[in-house]
Amino acid sequence: MTPSTNNGRNGAEPSIQTPPVLTAKAWEAAREQLLVKEKAQTKARDALAAERRRMPWMAVDKKYVFDGPSGKASLSDLFEGRRQLIVYRAFYEPGVYGWPEHACRGCSMVVDQMAHVAHLNARDTTLVVVSRAPQADIARLKARMGWDVPWFTVTDSFDKDFGVDEWHGTNVFFRDGDRIFRTYFLNNRGDEQMGGTWNYLDITPLGRQEVWEDSPEGYPQTPTYKWWNWHDSYQPEAAPDKKWVEVSDVGEAAMRNQSARP
Q1: Shortest CA distance to 221 belongs to which of 201, 236, 241?
Q2: What is the pLDDT of residue 4?
Q3: What is the pTM for the complete model shown?
Q4: Any idea what the CATH number is for the domain that residue 88 is in?
Q5: Residues whose CB is less than 8 angstroms from the CB of residue 151 and which lie 6 or more positions away in sequence, other chains included
Q6: What is the C-alpha separation between 98 and 101, in angstroms, rounded?
């Protein structure tokens, strides 16, 4: 049976032809069939992330200055002492639709979906937003929209130099002592997938840093799931919680058994 529907709008819109309605057993069989393709896509995504971790780097020798809540900041300062930095360029400045009450609608949707930074920080990664609006306007916008992500003001050619002067985009950098490298960049529809902790970590040079990942030799890796924590409970250098280790071990074993089934 293939029902049609007008979404309860009393004929205000044309009816659409929906998929067939099946029994529970037949529906589960259809789901299992699609799951084969979904698992293949997951493996392909993991393989692409592994390739991304081996992508060449570009040295960043030019000095950049940003305005921040505490005053002037260099690109190195944006790392906040961590090794990895993700910079999303949002459009919030004069001339952008919505100014000064709002940032660009699309950019605002991206920021609305950003992962809680505590989980990224726990993986030696800092996430920041930059735009050309003054800090006073940024502070007002963040308060209105309920955003907590660090947000800095571009004062020089940073946006032009890294391909985000005319359109939004996400740049990834790695810091080795005093040296900074650009390691990855995405924009356009690439930004649509961003927001979750995993997607952000998958575009960084160190990845999720879990033992199952295919990473170059010497990259940091810890047992899968064990580093997870409540976002208000991370402590630097803290050992994994013993109870959580037990719980995650059971969950991981169950998932492996399920994946092993034909």
Answers
A1: 201
A2: 58
A3: 0.91
A4: 3.40.30.10
A5: 90, 128, 129, 130, 131, 138, 142
A6: 6
